[in-house]
Amino acid sequence: MLKTTNYDVVILGSGPAGLQAAIHAARKKVAVLLLGKETKSSLFHAHVENFCCLFNVKGEDLLNVGRQQAKNFGAELLEEDVLQVLPDETVYKIVTESGQVNISQLLTNFLI
Predict the structure, then answer these.
(1) Of 49, 71, 78, 101, which residue has the fewest beta carbons closer than 10 angstroms?
(2) CA 26 centroid distance within chain
(3) Which long-range contacts (C-beta less than 8 Å, at least 24 apart) are formed by 59-65?
(4) Has this prediction a pTM greater than 0.70?
(5) Residue 44, by phi and psi: left (phi above 0), alpha (psi -120 to 50) or beta?
(6) Cα–chain-centroid distance for residue 91?
(7) Tally of domains in the chain
């Protein structure tokens, strides 16, 4: 069964940039969906030694902190690949691998 959900902002990619976008958008109290598999981020497999205020941290740990921050501000995270992005008049329909359809209501709010 397909599930359809409306969002103000849909972000494709759950790496550092996508997480930062989700955090900022969710702080503005809009409906935010972040799509993407954490393990596909190049940071996931990295070892970070040059990040301010932290010594020898795994990239996976940094991503986990970012995911928790985004969730705490109200963003929804869906760890699925996007199969299709379909423009439909004033919205985008985003179809994920499970068949879920997510709708971004404003063309200007679609972030990649």
Answers:
(1) 49
(2) 11
(3) 62/16, 63/14, 63/15, 63/16, 63/19, 63/38
(4) yes
(5) alpha
(6) 18
(7) 1
Tell me, what's the pLDDT at 107?
A: 43
Q: What is the CATH number of the domain that holds 21?
A: 3.50.50.60
Q: At what angle do helices 16-27 and 59-72 cross, to 10 degrees?
A: 20
**Rounded Cα–Cα distance for residues 51 and 36 (Å):** 24
What residue numbers bound the domain in which 31 lies?
4-111
* Both structure tokens of 63: 């991503």
Q: Name the residue among 29, 19, 23 with its Cα closest to residue 79.
A: 19
Alpha helices in the chain (DSSP H): 16-27, 59-72
Count of Cβ atoms closer than 10 Å to residue 63 Cβ: 20
For the cut 60, the answer to whether the pLDDT of residue 17 exceeds it is yes
